[in-house]
């Protein structure tokens, strides 16, 4: 009887310890983000206060108002940065998706010599560190006169996103049974029609999430953007974040506000595709 | 007629190959050439001056370079292993939660959408010796009187960077391992339990081999993008204090853009590129092996 009770107590204790650990882990994941959001609403005096003020006494939107009110009033050209970021990210995502769909389809549906070497080779282009790639690109772009332009940034981001898009889309097309397209072809479709009317609709959620992944990569990229952009003509939000840092001081409040502006689109998009993203990347894991 | 027709897979892959050749391969060839010259941005003619392997000889005898190299390898090895272990633990914890799995998984995605540069700023703020969250908390709790100079002391700064790095990427491992756990068939685990395996044995010989490909996918995805740590380090310490957190990537940026010694920086880049390729190729091979093993077993 006694042994029974101890065993039960032990089990309960383990369960609560594990629950506590889970809670702790989640708190560590969430806290930094919440800290940023909180500080974007607080006046600078309160952020700098010693000893620290834990419960905010005053909350306002001043940082956001200042940010959008233009240069001179403590603002940075955030609307320009936002526009550049959107143009560059969206265009490069669309192009990368088109190229990635073609490539992914080739890997999922055709057999050809050295297939896995080709795959590995394409992936390896992605491993080149951004900063290492930026050195020769800086030189080439300067020669071609496309430094500090949307076109230049879009080109780089397409190349950066293509390998990963191929990997994801390859996974999604492999989940679509081959027989379906073959059946459509027997019924008189051309391969092209079979693709658009049978395989594409089935793989669409996956392709959408590949697109969002590509979008986020371009949206968040810094190493290349910081060297290949110069002015408001092409600076993106991650580079714009540096505007809040001076030689020795950082405007923490303004920076937090810009961080929130950057994170909200990313948050919404990631939430929308989370399920498909994981299934696409892992679909090859079991089936090979 | 037949000779001019390309097979469809070549046509389909052609755009990808062209873009990557133009934007990645060609610049890399250029940078290989310029790593053999004393090229400086301020003297454009110097790109035609061939000096052989002089840049490489110099960096290989430069102790700063080797320190940066060692630090990079250390950072990657410790961070990747730590992320793997923590991610596995996190995935197991989430998997056994009976309620609220959906919301837990959403929270797990949270660090993934943070731009690395944002992570850098965030942790620079949190570890700030004056107004940071960590010092504020420690002082309010009375654990320490003076402010701990997190980003000013070399070793503490390295620790802070490691924390930021682990915070961003542990979730990647957790998400993929969780996907593996959920895809896993239940029968083998029950069979192992009936046969009298301890929970540890069940995990070690049944669960883990099944999860391995998923862990390696996460590893591969991570290693494709290891240089992301550059953004974090650039913001948090920019290689400082006094070069104590200098890694290859910050050293390249400083040599190439700061001192405008492009030839030298390109030589360093090549070492960094080969390092990344080595990491990725290693994980790709293990991924293939793990796949083959699982396919054989189940």
Structural account:
The complex is a heterodimer of chains A (288) and B (298). By secondary structure, chain A is mostly helical. Chain A has 2 domains: 2-61, no CATH class; 67-287, MetI-like fold (Orthogonal Bundle). Helix content of chain A is 77%, strand content 0%. Chain A contains 12 helices and no strands. In chain A, helix 9 packs antiparallel against helix 12. The longest helix of chain A is centred in the N-terminal third of the chain and has 39 residues, at 2-40. The N and C termini of chain A lie far apart (52 Å). With 298 residues, chain B is mainly alpha-helical. Chain B has a single domain (62-297), classed as MetI-like (MetI-like fold, Orthogonal Bundle), CATH 1.10.3720. Helix content of chain B is 72%, strand content 0%. Chain B has helices spanning 8-34, 54-60, 63-96, 101-109, 116-126, 133-140, 154-183, 187-194, 199-224, 229-236, 248-258, 262-297. The longest helix of chain B is centred in the last third of the chain and has 36 residues, at 262-297.
The most extensive interface between chains reads: A-B, 89 and 97 residues
Number of domains of chain A: 2
Q: What is the CATH-assigned architecture of chain B?
A: Orthogonal Bundle
Total domain modules of chain B: 1
Key features of this structure:
heterodimer; A: 288 residues; mainly alpha; MetI-like fold; 0% strand; flat; B: 298 residues; globular
In short:
With 288 residues, chain A is mainly α. Chain A has helices at 2-40, 44-48, 62-68, 78-109, 115-127, 130-144, 150-175, 178-186, 191-220, 223-228, 237-240, 252-287.
């Amino acid at each position: 009887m006694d042994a029974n009770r101890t065993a039960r107590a032990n089990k309960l204790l383990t369960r609560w310890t594990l629950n506590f650990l889970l809670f702790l882990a989640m708190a560590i994941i969430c806290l930094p983000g919440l800290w940023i959001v909180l500080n974007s609403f607080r006046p600078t005096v309160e952020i700098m206060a010693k000893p620290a003020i834990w419960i905010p006494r005053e909350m306002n939107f001043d940082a956001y108002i200042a940010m959008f009110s233009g240069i001179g009033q403590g603002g940075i050209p955030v609307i320009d940065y936002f526009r550049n970021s959107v143009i560059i990210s969206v265009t490069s995502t669309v192009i990368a998706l088109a190229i990635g769909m073609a490539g992914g389809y080739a890997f999922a549906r055709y057999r050809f010599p050295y297939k896995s070497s080709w795959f590995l080779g394409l992936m390896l282009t992605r491993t080149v560190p951004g900063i290492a790639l930026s050195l020769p690109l800086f030189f080439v772009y300067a020669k071609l006169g496309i430094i500090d332009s949307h076109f230049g940034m879009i080109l780089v981001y397409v190349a950066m996103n293509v390998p990963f898009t191929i990997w994801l889309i390859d996974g999604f097309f492999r989940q679509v049974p081959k027989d379906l397209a073959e059946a459509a072809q027997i019924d008189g479709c051309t391969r092209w029609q079979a693709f658009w009317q049978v395989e594409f609709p089935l793989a669409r959620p996956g392709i959408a999430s590949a697109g969002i992944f590509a979008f986020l990569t371009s949206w968040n990229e810094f190493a290349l953007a910081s060297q290949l952009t110069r002015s408001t003509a092409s600076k993106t939000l991650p580079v714009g974040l540096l505007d809040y840092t001076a030689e020795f001081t950082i405007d923490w409040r303004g920076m937090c506000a810009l961080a929130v502006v950057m994170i909200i689109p990313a948050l919404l998009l990631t939430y929308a595709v989370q399920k498909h993203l994981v299934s696409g990347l892992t679909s090859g894991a079991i089936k090979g | 007629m037949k000779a001019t027709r390309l097979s469809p897979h070549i046509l389909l892959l052609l755009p990808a190959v062209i873009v990557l050749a133009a934007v990645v391969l060609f610049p890399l060839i250029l940078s290989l050439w310029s790593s053999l010259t004393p090229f400086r941005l301020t003297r454009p003619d110097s790109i035609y001056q061939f000096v052989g392997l002089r840049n490489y000889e110099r960096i290989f005898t430069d102790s700063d370079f080797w320190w940066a190299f060692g630090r990079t390898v250390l950072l990657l090895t410790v961070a990747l292993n730590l992320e793997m272990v923590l991610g596995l633990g996190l995935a197991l914890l989430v998997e056994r939660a009976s309620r609220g799995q959906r919301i837990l998984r959403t929270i797990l995605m949270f660090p993934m959408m943070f731009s690395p540069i944002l992570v850098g700023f965030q942790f620079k703020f949190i570890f700030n010796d004056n107004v940071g969250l960590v010092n504020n908390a420690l002082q309010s709790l009375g654990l320490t009187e003076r402010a701990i100079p997190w980003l000013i002391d070399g070793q503490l700064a390295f620790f802070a960077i490691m924390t930021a790095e682990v915070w961003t990427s542990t979730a990647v491992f957790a998400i993929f391992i969780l996907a593996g756990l959920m895809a896993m068939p239940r029968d083998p685990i029950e069979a192992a339990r009936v046969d009298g395996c301890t929970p540890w044995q069940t995990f070690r010989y049944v669960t883990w081999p099944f999860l391995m490909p998923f862990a390696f996918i996460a590893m591969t995805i991570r290693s494709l993008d290891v240089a992301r740590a550059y953004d974090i380090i650039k913001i948090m310490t920019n290689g400082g204090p006094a070069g104590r957190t200098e890694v290859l990537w910050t050293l390249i940026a400083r040599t190439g853009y700061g001192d405008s010694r492009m030839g030298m920086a390109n030589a360093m880049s090549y070492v960094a590129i080969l390092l990344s390729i080595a990491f990725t190729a290693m994980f790709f091979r293990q991924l293939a092996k793990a796949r083959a093993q699982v396919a054989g077993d189940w």
